[in-house]
Amino acid sequence: MRGGRVAVVGGSIAGCAFASAAARAGAGEVVVLERTSGQLADRGVGLAIHDDRAAELAGTGVLAPGIAAHRLTRRKWLVQDGDSRTGRVMWDQPFPFHSYHWGLLWRGMRAATPAGVDYRQGAAVESVRGYADRAEVRLADGSVERFDLVVGADGYRSVVREAVCPGARPSYAGYICWRGSYPADRLAALGTPADGGTDWPTTDAVTVGIPGGSCVIYRIPGPDGPMVNWVCYAVPPETGLRLDDPTSLPPGGVTGELAAHLAWLAQRWFPPYWVGVIGLTPPERTFVQPIYDLETELTVGERLLLAGDAASVVRPHNTSGAAKALQDATAFEAAWRQADSWDGLLRSYQAARGATGRELVALARRLGLAQAERTPDWSAMTEPAMTAWWRQQLDGVADIGGQALPPTRESVPEAPR
């Protein structure tokens, strides 16, 4: 199937991937509608992609080449242990991931978007409607445009999802995460092994266990060199914030109560070195993200299709968000190439990706229950106990980081024609 006019609502990582996939597959016109007018590359949070998923996605052409990534190989699970500066290692877990800087990943995906794609910034979408023969997009300026297909890559507060699954909204999980990042050269302030500091291997991720939560710390590439990135999960104090309504607090917008609670958690439960690691984060690089999840029965409607977080919101514990969005784009391109109609494309995409989001949500809920809602007594955990605890969370799933795509011939893109 070739030709047609396609709109992609949302111009972030998923949006760029879908726009590129549609252009490669043969769309006549691709328009990206991104509501923000600023630089998305300014978003400096970290994320990780499992090595197997990264290789798979690079092989399909969906993950653009040359994007900066930082190699991780082990994850040390730590717990406070008396006067130990770095804590006791409960488990030294294999961790075959590469970490990314969100902004640099987006920049690479944006650069790889074909030149013929009409990427519009400052184009806020107010609503969409799907019909049997078309889809319509109403923009905030009141104008209405018609397309043959509209892809919702507009995140967890998706306008397109409201048209496909009316009333479906992410649910608050009951806890939040504090996030932060900063240049890794600041770690020098904490000393070296020679003067009482520590040597934190660059390929190690660290998870510190605390009662009712955990904190993941790892390095990511940055625009000006390596960075430290961390995510701390815990129940927040009472602040009066409306967390049942999907939201987040931007960098620099963390309230005094939330900042003080994070400092208390670190001082009370973190080994001293990791208190210092978190403490090096400047206020303007610290923000709060309430944890939500959402599963939908449908990922398609009449001439409408959902991608990434618009289709399902998965708690971050699964480390699968970016991989899932890029896999969605891979499946979309494969479905397009084998379809002879728009209805056929939508049916194939639903069959390929409909269950995936629900399965990832279920796994991430188990992980969240074990690592934030009902944590074990970390001080009593040993390597055998940690291994058994981890297998119980996976419940038959091979690993975190997402599922492998089926090895079908259609998942390999053809050369542009």
From TrEMBL:
PROSITE patterns: PROKAR_LIPOPROTEIN. GO terms for molecular function: monooxygenase activity. Residues 1-21 form the signal peptide. Its cofactor is FAD. InterPro entries: FAD-dep_Monooxygenase_BioMet, FAD/NAD-bd_sf. Gene3D superfamilies: 3.30.9.30, FAD/NAD(P)-binding domain. Keywords: FAD, Flavoprotein, Monooxygenase, Oxidoreductase, Signal. PANTHER family: GERANYLGERANYL DIPHOSPHATE REDUCTASE, MONOOXYGENASE. This is 2-polyprenyl-6-methoxyphenol hydroxylase-like FAD-dependent oxidoreductase.
